[in-house]
Amino acid sequence: MQRFGDAVFSTATIDTQDRDLHVRIRAEFAEMPGLKLTLPQASRLFNVDAARCERALDRLVENGSLSIARGAFIRAGLGC
User: Which residues contact 3 (CB under 8 A, 6 or more apart)?
Assistant: First the structure.
């Protein structure tokens, strides 16, 4: 179990939520190949707090799904 603010979540719930967010982010970038988002823009678009969004985006950069160009996240392999 992990505590986030006043809520307590099981690790499985957190993993499922993170996995769902990763799928959602990858889908948006796949649907719009030219999409270029800063962290604040991504946080608003995906309706998640900046810290959680940053963790998800960083994980997708680490696994090669996304890249960072000029302070914005883009689909990997597109360059800018």
Answer: 9
